[in-house]
Amino acid sequence: MSGPIPLDSPALLSFWTERHLCTFTTLRTDGSPHVVAVGATLDPESGLARIISSSTSAHVRHIRRGQQRVAICQVDGPRWSTVEGLAVVSDDPDAVTEAEQRYAKRYRTPRPNPKRVVIEVTVTRILGSASLAADPHPE
User: Fold this and answer.
1) CATH number reported for the structural domain that contains residue 19 in this entry
2) How distant, in Å, are the alpha carbons of 32, 42, 107, 117 from that of 111?
3) Average pLDDT in the 34-50 region?
């Protein structure tokens, strides 16, 4: 069973701190999906998911055409979670630095990239396996 999961679910937040690669789906101009592998972070305080990328990436170009709906999904065996939301691209140095720091905490220090931008996804819905809606440490 699966369904919507609250952003403050402890099991969900724990899952999004584990080291898992994600798929990131944007839409091409013809409406077809463009799916790539990325590292992503989830920030429940701001309601944002973040992806660092190069300004020359196809998915960045797709988003820059205008704010668009995107999906970020990660899977680990029977556990899965999809974050849906509205994406914008930022080249603001402070926003990029924050995204790099969050990425480094979850994955590793990213290699230098002078064309780096951050994709900020305002979370509108989270879906996932039923186990992620539960508290992993019930009292």
Assistant:
1) 2.30.110.10
2) 31, 21, 12, 13
3) 96
